[in-house]
Amino acid sequence: MDQLMRGAPPWMPPDDTVSAVAAGEHWDAVVTPQQAGLAALSLLDADTTPPGPVLWDTRHEARLYFLVPVGSAGELAAAGFRVLGARSFIAVPGATSVGPPGPHWLVPPDPDQPGRLVDATALHQALRRAAGAFWAEYRPPQAAPRNILITGAQRLGQACVLCGIVTDQLIPAGHVYTPTGQAPLGWAVVACPAHASEVTR
Ligand SMILES: [Zn+2]
Fold this sequence. Notes:
The chain is α+β, with helices and mostly antiparallel strands. It folds into two domains: about 20-125, no CATH class; about 130-200, no CATH class. The chain contains five helices and eleven strands, in the order ββαββαβββαββαββα. A five-stranded antiparallel β-sheet has the order 5-2-4-3-7. A four-stranded antiparallel β-sheet has the order 9-8-10-11. A two-stranded antiparallel ribbon has the order 1-6. Helix 1 (about 35-45) packs across helix 3. The longest helix is centred in the first third of the chain and has 14 residues, at about 35-45. The chain is elongated and about 50 Å long. It starts with 17 loop residues before the first strand and ends with a helix. Bound molecules: zinc ion. Zinc ion binds near residues 160, 191 and 194. Zinc ion binds near residues 163, 191, 192 and 195.
């Protein structure tokens, strides 16, 4: 069958090797500081599965590299994010490198969709949301508690606690707890209809 339909993308180095791969051919790379990148990735993860290939390089200043379609990161560049395109190279490891040391895949390319890349618009949105977000413990009515990244609007019950969408159909969906000096402080939160069915019965 068609070799390009499934497997490693054509630019992927062999397993257990790292190669300098040219940006601007198959993808551009959006570079973020580690903390902002991890926060944005957790928001992307909640919205789309999988978000597309993301590299983590902890060798010097720890950074994440989100691989986006060539030419799609203009808005991110205009907003001050570093975007590597034509005439830039980045260190890319083989598909099996998923841990340090050295550059490794935080989200490897999906073998079922080797051409899939991170959506630059969704990434920009996630980076903006992450900039004003903080971690809180979420206790849904009918699901296990977990730590999530939320914005002020989500904490105040003005946006879906899981996806951040604002609609006129937001439904009560439990509480989030933010750490304070003595005891955690609870905030009543809401969910959009799609997410409410996940956390309530
Ligand atoms: Zn939602």
